[in-house]
Backbone:
């Protein structure tokens, strides 16, 4: 699917994004990436996480060790939430859970009807519970059915992306100052916000 945040980045940031993505998809938790100044590297990592809910095994932080000479990061180590030996099994479980939703949608449904169906499916499937297991990732919704806004939004994005529909994850703050996550979808040429 179209990686929304990647398309908004400069070429140097895209190179780092690609290096992190390749490292994670190879199931490596530590790898080298080109250096970016200041907060830019953590911003790229954060935006990659927004684009790819299917990378469910990484947490919200990474440790960076820089070389004293040159412009390379000696080590980029991601916080993980799922051990490497369990990732393939969990990936298959998540795909099967997403397919349960996808295969129940009528084949002649419009894009709007598909989006609405997934929206309602996730709402009916999941209880809002801040004490759920791994609530910042898709498994909280698709496997454990207890989540918070991040899990709801990432699961919604994951399912729609698997269906070939554009959906991205948006973060911000609500009026009372708390953090919140929701989605943006595209139907035809128009974009709409969706808050599962």
Residues:
């Amino acid at each position: 699917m179209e990686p929304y945040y990647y398309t908004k980045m400069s070429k140097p940031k895209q190179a780092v994004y690609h290096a992190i993505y390749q490292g994670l998809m190879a199931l490596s938790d530590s790898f080298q990436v080109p250096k970016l100044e200041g907060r830019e590297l953590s911003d790229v990592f954060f935006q990659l996480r927004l684009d790819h809910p299917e990378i469910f095994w990484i947490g919200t932080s990474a440790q960076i060790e820089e070389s004293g000479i040159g412009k390379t990061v000696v080590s980029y180590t991601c916080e993980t939430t799922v051990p490497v030996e369990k990732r393939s099994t969990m990936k298959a479980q998540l795909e099967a859970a997403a397919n349960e939703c996808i295969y129940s949608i009528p084949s002649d449904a419009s894009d709007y009807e598909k989006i609405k169906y997934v929206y309602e499916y996730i709402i009916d499937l999941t209880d809002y519970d801040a004490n759920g297991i791994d609530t910042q990732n898709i498994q909280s919704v698709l496997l454990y059915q207890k989540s918070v806004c991040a899990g709801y939004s990432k699961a919604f994005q994951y399912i729609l992306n698997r269906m070939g529909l554009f959906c991205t994850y948006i973060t911000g703050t609500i009026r009372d100052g708390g953090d919140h996550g929701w989605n943006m979808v595209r139907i035809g040429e128009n974009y709409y916000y969706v808050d599962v």
Q: What stands out?
A: The chain has a mean pLDDT of 90. The first strand starts at residue 30 and ends at 31. The first helix runs from residue 4 to 7. The helical segments are 4-7, 11-25, 40-51, 84-102, 111-125, 139-142, 149-162.
